[in-house]
Amino acid sequence: MNEKRVWQLVLGVLAFGPLTAQDAQFAQFYAVPTYISPAFAGTGLQTRMGLAVRDQWPAFPGAFVTTNLAVDHYMPDINSGIGLLVTHDKAGSGALSYTSVAGQYAYEIELKRKVFLRPALQLGWVNHSVDYSKLIFGDQLARGGDVGTYEYLRGTGISYADFGGGLMLFTPRYWTGISFHHLNRPNQSLIGNETRMPVKFSMHGGWRTTLRTPVIRDHEQSIVLAYNYRSQGKYDQLDVGGYFERDPFYAGIWYRGIPLLKHYEAGFSNRDALSLLVGTIVNGVRIGYSYDITISRLAGQSAGAHEITLGYAFAQQSKKRAMSKRRIVPCPKF
User: For 324, which DSSP code?
Assistant: First the structure.
């Protein structure tokens, strides 16, 4: 049996077994911050777009490819931000797919000068489907033919509503927040059983400092330290790292895992990857690339993960100058 068939079989088993599904993750999550929390909707100076594409474990044929598109806009007249978030994930040569479209709303409250609180809501619609013809079943392997179990299966997809929320506090130097996704715990079973999506909890934040140098007026330099903790079902993970920013160039390094505090099974520590990130801004377009160096027991087999992000802000310069004096969210751009 070749490697491709092995992984198609594994992914097929995951699709139908008693799996507690996990949301996709990104290394450059601040390139599309509304994926972390709807409270980030409208935290740009006006309108912005972000696109992230992640190829997870490319050494395994047809493994996991995730695409995220986000658009958000700030409405200063009503102190509100709105956003649209589209996420598509596919696995197993496209056999198993997940598509989500969500609307977001955040209200901005100025607690005191340059200190803001943002409660937010998210409402989405999800389609979860499988193409049985792209899976390899045991009877096909035994017979060596193309006729398989999938011909007798019914129900290729389901759709359901999905709710979430978030809360964020920020100043010009730091931000902190929490978010909850899948609050209604939708049933995601593809074969008529009951498999509830576990609630995903996220706690995130960071701090920015500007480096005082002789050329700061021409090329501002900053260091940003940040973290993002996520918990879903019995699994949790921590991303912690930092960025060096010298406009228009950016670089960062992140560690993903909680190795000293948690082991899911004997011999399996909670450590995943080191992420190396570089980015630049060309004609107003943010371009980022990151590579995950696997440090789990898949090291040397998975080929890590590649991620590319693009971003663009449509803010008018006159409005940008006026609004930046009032509200600055210090999180990174990548």
Answer: H
Phi, psi for 161 (deg, rounded to 5): -80, 150
Token pair recorded at residue 170? 């920020």
3-class SS of residue 144:
coil
Structural domains in the chain plus CATH codes: 3-326 (2.40.160.40)
Left, alpha or beta for 182 (phi > 0: left; psi -120 to 50: alpha)? left
pLDDT tens digits, one per residue of 147-170: 555 555 555 788 999 999 999 999
Task: Mark residue 330 as left, alpha or beta (left: phi above 0; alpha: psi -120 to 50; beta: remaining).
Answer: alpha
pTM for the predicted model, two decimal places: 0.85
113 contact partners, CB below 8 Å, separation of at least 6: none
The two tokens of residue 328 are: 């600055």
CA 218 to chain centre: 33
Residue 283: partners with Cβ closer than 8 Å, 6 or more residues away: none
DSSP characters over 221-256: EEEEEEEEEEEETTEEEEEEEEEEEETTEEEEEEEE
| Strand pairing report for 174-181 and 157-170 | antiparallel
Query: Cα–Cα distance between 181 and 158 in angstroms, integer?
Result: 19
Residue 47 exposure: Cα atoms within 13 Å on the Cβ side? 4
CB 259 within 8 A of CB 238: no
CA atoms within 13 A on the CB side of 293: 7
How would you write 277-311 as a 3-class SS string? Answer: EEEEEECCEEEEEEEEEECCCCCCCCCCEEEEEEE
Per-residue pLDDT of 63-86, as tens digits, reads: 688 999 999 999 999 999 999 999
